[in-house]
Design brief:
This is tRNA N6-adenosine threonylcarbamoyltransferase. It is found in: Cytoplasm. Belongs to the KAE1 / TsaD family. This protein is α/β, with parallel strands linked by helices. Helix content is about 45%, strand content about 15%. The strands form 2 sheets. It has a 6-stranded mixed beta sheet with strand order 5-4-1-2-3-6, with helices on both faces. The chain starts with a strand and ends in an 18-residue tail after the last helix. About 50% of the residues are buried. Bound molecules: 5'-O-[(R)-(carboxyoxy)(hydroxy)phosphoryl]adenosine (KG4) and zinc ion.
């Protein structure tokens, strides 16, 4: 079964064609990151306008890339929430319209569920569309994640720990009480003057600072020990205290380096280092990098330990990572460290399928379609949709 997936929940416009919920025939993403970089975050009105400009070319390109005709497509799926209302509306409306025009079943997909299903994606062995459907049109194939499993969904807007007992069956164990993990990365990157999106910027700054210490044969020990909110007895998360601690540390850092100057009101000021002499600037960058590393370590610590505890409590043999923050190398390594000694397998999607894309939307839709599900065409966007 070939599904055309459409994703437009935030600032990425995606179209993809996926066979049997797993095999990638085409995956096209138009990103607006460069536009929003100027503002230090996503501007909703700008995002929806860009979605509108990109959506049709992206779908056309996906069809060309897959070498398939409309007649080959058996269902159309689009994200209907959670996300930015204006952005969601573009992909959902186009998806429903295409389904109506082509007389195809339409499926609205939950964006969080799509992130989880990125773990089922793999390269197609060949682009032969004619293979016997009974061979691959199945809910369980070798190489698929094994149920029951625990999934940590960490994106720009969500941090959720989920028990998945079977396809499309979710039990929410915990969620963030304030900032999402990705949001914390983005806000802290802003405090440190590292730019947007924050996750990759923090990861890079932390790595460069640690390399610098290694080069100078200094111990790679982080002087910044940041607070962790464990919220014991629950699987909920909280990252706002960590963010505030970062703000205070960043202010103190500028004050230390520039005695006599008043404390800056916002963390953005830390980037003033770049205007100093080259040696001071370099030292400043190392400090910022170590702060970034301390922050990353704190957030990764809490995510990894709570995920491991959930995996133990529910006796699962497999843990999945999903969402933009799943691209974080430190998080993957730390989780591996927690889970491998227990014989629990960790799986995460390749980096391009961690952040927003439409292939994951098509994958999630396939497993709903297997049960004959479809949505009416009056389905509306749900910006606050949960799992
Ligand atoms: O899933 P996603 O593309 O969009 C949402 O559904 O929100 O996630 C975007 C988030 C951003 O907050 C971004 O900073 C974060 O994922 N992110 C990362 C990394 N790459 C992206 N966070 C930490 N480390 C990364 N390498
Ligand atoms: Zn996402």
């Amino acid at each position: 079964m070939l599904v055309l997936g459409i994703e437009s929940s935030c600032d990425e416009t995606g179209a993809a064609i996926v066979k049997d919920g797993r095999y990638l025939l085409a995956n096209v993403v138009a990103s607006q990151t460069e536009i929003h970089e100027r503002y230090g975050g996503v501007v909703p009105e700008v995002a929806s306008r860009q979605q509108l400009a990109a959506i049709l070319p992206v779908i056309e390109t996906a069809l060309q890339q897959a070498h398939c005709r409309w007649e080959d497509i058996e269902a159309v799926a689009a994200t209907y929430g959670p996300g930015l209302a204006g952005s969601l509306l573009v992909g959902l409306t186009v998806g429903k319209t295409l389904a109506l025009a082509r007389d195809l079943p339409f499926l609205g997909v939950n964006h969080l569920e799509a992130h989880i299903y990125a773990n089922w994606l793999r390269q197609a062995p060949d682009t032969d569309l004619q293979t016997d459907a009974s061979e691959t049109e199945s809910a369980y194939l070798p190489g698929d994640p094994l149920f029951p499993l625990i999934c940590l969904v960490v994106s720009g807007a969500h941090s959720e720990l989920v028990l998945m007992r079977d396809h499309t069956d979710y039990l929410l164990l915990g969620r963030t009480r304030d900032d999402a993990a990705g949001e914390a990365f983005d806000k802290v990157a802003r405090i440190l003057g590292l730019g947007y999106p924050g996750g990759p910027a923090i990861q890079r700054a932390a790595r460069l600072a640690e390399e610098e210490l290694r080069q100078q044969r200094l111990p790679v020990r982080n002087p910044y020990r940041l607070p962790r909110a464990w919220l014991r007895g629950t699987y909920d998360f909280s990252f706002s205290g960590l963010k505030t601690a970062m703000l205070h540390l960043a202010e103190g850092l500028v004050a230390d380096q520039q005695p006599g100057r008043p404390l800056p009101s916002g963390g953005r000021q830390v980037s003033r280092y770049t205007t100093m002499g080259s040696e001071a600037a370099r030292r400043g960058q190392v400090h910022i990098g170590l702060l970034a590393a301390g922050f990353q370590e704190a957030i990764v610590d809490v995510l990894a330990v709570k995920t491991r505890m959930a995996a133990q409590e529910y006796h699962v043999r497999q843990v999945l990572l999903a969402g933009g923050v799943a691209a974080n190398v430190a998080l993957r390594a730390r989780l591996e460290e927690e889970l491998t000694p227990l014989g629990i397998r960790l799986q995460y999607p390749p980096i391009e399928f961690c952040t927003d894309n439409a292939a994951m939307v098509a994958a999630a839709a396939f497993f709903h379609r297997l049960h004959g599900e479809q949505h009416d065409l009056d389905l509306d966007v749900e910006p606050n949709l949960s799992l």
